[in-house]
Write a structure and sequence with these properties.
Blueprint (H helix, E strand, L loop, with lengths): L1 H17 L6 H29 L3 E9 L8 H13 L6 E9 L3 H13 L11 E4 L2 E4 L1 H21 L4 E9 L4 H11 L4 E5 L4 E12 L3 H13 L11 E4 L2 E4 L1 H13 L25 H15 L2 H17 L3 H29 L7 H26 L12 H14 L5 H37 L5 H26 L4 H10 L1 H21 L2
Helix pairs in contact: 1-2, 3-5, 9-14, 9-15, 10-11, 10-13, 10-15, 10-16, 11-14, 11-15, 12-17, 13-14
Length: 525
């Protein structure tokens, strides 16, 4: 458009000069002035518009790949991978993509030139290979693991060399956190660029939000470094938390109230990066709060009095008594087998939830958990009244009849073993096998406890393992006590009758435990 106006202006001047336009000189001068002013205005407007429309940050991304297949779209796959890895960090950046298939002669020659231009070592001269400005990543694994970091390095390099500063916000969170979700939504409302009011000037800044899921071990270690360097009190050592400049903001209210002010004051341009270089910290800290220990022990102890678990133990001990073998030895082997089995099941489920990043206590999942808790509370209350009126056939929360028969059959088969050594080993194995079937009945409280562990320790570390050991030790304490009492001469029938008479109390305690868990989910998560 600008060129068109200039061409018309030149032609107009030419006509005036040649005398083909029959107007007075005064009129010609007025028109020349009018057109000249329009050109000036247009140039100023056009230049401003282009500057606003085109980001000052431009990054060249050159991707080389080898694809002999005509129907395979490797370029589309790479663009999809690039967008998923870089995400919102590519906003306000003009990316110049170039993609070359080295299967074709021209692409191979172009790649050879790049190898020479950027001094790529011979061992790195492979495909696919990605060049981001003057950096390169060779191989699929290197591209997937390093693309975002290299992109941000180039982006920050350009920003640091420009007149605009960069505000770095370090945000630590866990997926199983309602406040973290609200903070994440709030961060999404921030502008990408703010005007900072400095002491002697004003300056624009780009906002760079770096998010760290402390469910990943490396990020958990990183947040501990920031806790130590920033001297964060123990009461504030939780997520969500943001580090900006030389200060931190802990909790949803503090972040919403203070973050924007910190950005506009320019504090974020001095945020230190503790992930670079070697750091000699104080090491992993195991923090088992006394209240947490008490809650875990009580949950395990209450679950240990589950009638399903006790009934299987009593049936096993009755056969051991009839066989005349060492009750204490065989009973402890059976209980220890259950301990290891529950420890394995608990840690397995914990790691499965971590692996799939189950979004505990997002609105939908939280609602589902609360509905399940409500149903279990109601069923325990119904079982309480059924047990109170000795209508044991109406108890719902118990093992299915077919599974009880199968467990009994497995236990009976043990009585045919004559060797005391083999009987000890098989008692241990039987304890493990029986506990897996019992999990349908005893696993309800255990699953609730695992969710609590996920909130308290969002990775599987020594702290989480100690929680599981404490819970499972508490779980087998009632079983060990029953074994010891029978060893001392108490009749199995008397103990079975005592458990049956206390079944209403056990069901009521289960209902109270799940009700408390539901309240914790509703308020805390």
């Amino acid at each position: 458009m600008l060129l068109s106006i200039l061409e018309k202006t030149i032609m107009y001047y030419k006509k005036c000069y040649e005398g083909r336009v029959m107007l007075k000189f005064k009129l010609c001068s007025s028109k020349r002035l009018f057109i000249f002013l329009h050109i000036i205005i247009f140039v100023l407007f056009y230049g401003t518009t282009v500057k606003a429309a085109n980001p000052s940050i431009q990054i060249n991304v050159v991707y080389f790949y080898n694809n002999p297949c005509a129907s395979c779209n490797e370029e589309e796959k790479f663009i999809s991978l690039f967008n998923s890895l870089v995400g919102t960090d590519k906003e306000d950046v003009k990316i110049n993509f170039t993609m070359c298939n080295i299967f074709k002669t021209g692409g191979a020659q172009y790649l050879k030139e790049y190898f020479e231009r950027y001094n790529v070592p011979r061992e790195k001269q492979i495909t696919p290979i990605l060049f981001v400005n003057d950096q390169f990543l060779a191989g699929d694994a290197a591209i997937k693991s390093g693309l975002r970091d290299v992109f941000l390095q180039e982006k920050n390099k350009i920003i640091s060399n420009s007149d605009e500063a960069e505000t770095v916000i370090l945000y630590f969170y866990v997926p199983a956190c309602r406040e973290c979700e609200e903070v994440d939504e709030f961060l999404g409302t921030l502008e990408k660029r703010y005007l900072m009011e400095l002491e002697d000037s004003t300056k624009y800044t780009y906002v760079n939000i770096k998010k760290f899921n402390v469910g990943e071990p490396k990020n958990l270690e990183l947040i501990k470094k920031y806790f130590e360097v920033y001297k964060v009190p123990e009461d504030d050592q939780s997520v969500p938390i943001i580090f900006i400049g030389d200060t931190y903001l802990s909790g949803l209210k503090s972040i919403k109230k203070e973050l924007l002010k910190k950005i506009q004051m320019g504090q974020g341009i001095t945020t230190p990066d503790l992930s670079k270089g070697e750091y000699h910290g104080s090491g992993s800290v195991i923090n088992l709060n006394g209240y947490n220990i008490f809650g875990v022990l009580m949950a395990g102890l209450a679950n240990g009095f589950n009638p399903c678990s006790l009934s299987m133990l009593l049936f096993f001990l009755s056969l051991v008594v009839a066989k005349g073998t060492n009750i204490l030895k065989m009973g402890f082997a059976f209980c220890f087998g259950k301990f290891l089995s529950y420890l394995f099941l608990g840690t397995l489920l914990f790691n499965v939830f971590l692996k799939f990043q189950v979004p505990w206590f997002s609105t939908i999942v939280k609602a589902i958990v609360l509905v399940c808790v409500f149903v279990i509370v109601l069923m325990n209350i119904q079982d309480y009244f059924a047990a109170k009126h000795e209508r044991y056939d109406r108890i719902r929360l118990q093992l299915p009849a077919w599974l009880r028969k199968y467990n009994h059959k497995c236990i009976k088969n043990l009585s045919s073993i004559q060797s005391a050594r083999w009987l000890f080993v098989l008692s241990f194995i039987l304890g493990m096998a029986i506990s897996i079937g019992e999990f349908l009945c005893t696993g309800q409280i255990y699953l609730a406890t695992i969710i609590y562990f996920l909130k308290s320790s969002p990775i599987f570390n020594l702290q989480a393992l100690l929680y599981f050991i404490l819970y499972d030790l508490a779980f087998i304490i009632p079983l060990l006590l029953v074994t010891y009492v029978i060893y001392k001469g108490k009749e199995i029938f008397d103990i079975s009758d005592a458990i049956r008479r206390r079944m209403p109390f056990i069901k009521l305690m289960n209902a109270i435990l799940f009700l408390a868990f539901g309240i914790v989910v509703l308020i805390w998560f």
